[in-house]
Write a structure and sequence with these properties.
The protein folds into 2 domains: 190 residues, Orthogonal Bundle (DNAb Helicase, Chain A), CATH 1.10.860.10; 259 residues, Rossmann fold (3-Layer(aba) Sandwich), CATH 3.40.50. It is built from 14 helices and 11 strands. The strands form 2 sheets. A 9-stranded mixed sheet has the order 5-4-6-7-3-8-9-10-11, sandwiched between helices. It has a two-stranded antiparallel ribbon with strand order 1-2. Strand 10 and strand 11 form a beta hairpin. Helix 1 crosses helix 6 and helix 9 packs across helix 10. It is elongated, with a radius of gyration of 29 Å.
Length: 489
């Protein structure tokens, strides 16, 4: 077996090599079936031990790309938590390199494995090279750690259960001795689980001075006076009020960094649109027409960015089904959002993203928690588009359909048509009411959807009473008198 390195070892293969076949995780041993006793143990079949090769490879690949990932992995996982022997060897050599203050990359890792006569055992340099293939630009390290840790716990549980069955079945020890041994093993495993879920080291309480020492000097806004930074958003309206057109228009202004309805956008944002209610063709047409019909001041700044890299959309054409109740779907959007650097994420509409009873507060709360989790783990703002109930009691935000959703929001838009009896929708006057926990709510905005050649445009108009609408509280008049004020880099 050759363990020396040469230049040819570093030639990339045509496809990713597989783990060495002899390194596949072993199967659990057959437990003994006691067929001559009244109580039959139907446990004679073999079971494959739980493992996830992809998560293990992504963890190892993350270290190759960024050595700072290693301490985070080491804080939770040990060498034995990797299922494949080859992965255990690779992780051990990474640990050795870090302990001696040496960098970890393909060359240093291959050299260390070669020095220990393990380079061919782990699949050669070709397999080491494959560890970074398919790795996102921003790997979700904590999630990969959770997967590998969970599989390791599962293997240990199967080992303990297998011991209990074999020791009891062969009757070589008393049942009391077996119970005591199993309890000791379970105690050790429980301690491992507690290590996976260890408490934060930060104190629970902070004193006043410590707490306020880092207080921001002013509110951070995504859209000044309307959307505070990092807050959950709720956009409400009846069917037919063109909520999708509103958020598409807002998304275009966020990407351009241009004032929206005279409210300044401090810096441009990357936006993701998950549009699940309308037919894909309708969503495509609306977004295209809004870009084509945008004011020249908006188009000027849109030309400064590559929309392909700033405005992302997912409809049923890209994926027929997607759910806030399916873990694989949630992980997919978290990783995709992080990889693309999405900063504001719209879900249109909430009811199309899950199945269940929306009038059940507990059930709704679980789904909303998943939406909030996406924002937290993907480091982006989340806004949900939702329908109104038929009730006419309270404010427009009190009329959010279903239970518990109104309390979830930190900022909100309420969209209504002021003249619904007007037969021609082109003449409909739309009104947006606002809610914000960060500051006093801004005055309502009135607008019409106007045709602009082959495009569409949202044109702000005076209120039906003709009364002057004052600038948002705390903002200088000069900030809101110019329509479509551009963001300056």
């Amino acid at each position: 077996m050759k363990d020396d390195l040469n230049f040819d070892d570093f030639v990339m293969p045509n496809k990713s090599p597989e783990p060495p076949p002899e390194e596949k995780p072993a199967k659990a041993e057959k437990s003994v079936s006691v067929v001559d006793k009244p109580l039959v143990l139907a446990v004679a079949q073999e079971y494959t031990l739980p493992y996830n090769v992809s998560a293990e490879k992504l963890l190892l690949g993350s270290v190759l790309l960024d050595n700072k990932s290693l301490p985070e992995i080491q804080a939770t996982l040990e060498v034995e938590d990797f299922a494949l022997d080859s992965h255990q060897r690779i992780f051990q050599r990474m640990t050795d390199l870090a302990a001696s203050n040496r960098g970890i990359d393909l060359v240093t890792l291959a050299n260390e494995l070669s020095r220990c006569k393990e380079i061919q055992t782990v699949g050669g340099v070709a397999y080491l090279s494959s560890l970074t293939e398919g790795l996102p630009r921003r790997p979700v390290i904590e999630e990969y750690i959770r997967i590998v840790a969970d599989k390791s716990i599962g293997r240990q549980l199967m080992h303990i259960g297998n011991n209990a069955i074999q020791w009891t079945a062969d009757q070589s020890e008393t049942s009391v001795w077996t119970l005591d041994a199993i309890q000791r093993q379970m105690t050790e495993l429980t301690e491992r689980v507690r290590a996976f879920q260890k408490r934060p080291t930060e104190p629970f309480f902070l004193g006043y001075r410590s707490f306020v020492s880092s207080a921001p000097e002013e509110i951070a806004w995504t859209v000044e006076g309307l959307i505070q930074a990092e807050g959950n958003g709720l956009i409400l309206g009846d069917s037919g009020t063109s909520k999708s057109v509103l958020i598409f228009d807002l998304a275009i202004h966020l990407v351009a960094g241009v004032s929206w309805f005279q409210h300044k956008i401090p810096e441009r944002k990357r936006v993701g649109l998950v549009a699940r209610e309308d037919a894909p063709g309708l969503s495509q047409s609306r977004l295209k027409r809004l870009v084509e019909g945008a004011p020249e001041s908006v188009k000027m700044f849109l030309e400064c960015v590559d929309l392909e890299d700033w405005l992302y959309t997912n409809t049923r054409a890209q994926r027929e089904t997607w759910s806030l109740q399916k873990e694989t779907d949630i992980q997919d959007i978290i990783e995709s959002s992080k990889e693309r650097g999405i900063q504001v994420l719209f879900f249109d509409v909430f009811r199309e993203l899950w199945e269940g009873n929306e009038n059940d507060n507990q059930e709704t709360a679980k789904v909303l928690a998943q939406a909030k989790r996406i924002g937290r783990e993907a480091n982006c703002q989340v806004a949900i588009v939702h329908h109104l109930s038929k009730s006419d009691k309270g404010t427009i935000f009190d009329r959010a359909r279903g239970g518990g959703i109104n309390g979830w929001k930190e900022w909100g838009f309420g969209l209504t048509v002021e003249n619904p009896d007007e037969p021609d929708p082109k003449n409909w006057l739309r009104k947006i009411q606002f809610h914000s926990k960060a500051d006093a709510a801004s005055p309502p905005i009135f607008y019409r959807i106007e045709s602009a050649g082959d495009g569409l445009r949202l044109e702000q108009v005076d209120s039906p009473t003709g009364q002057y609408t004052p600038p948002p509280k705390g903002k200088k008049k000069s900030q809101v008198t110019q329509q479509n004020m551009p963001y300056q880099d």
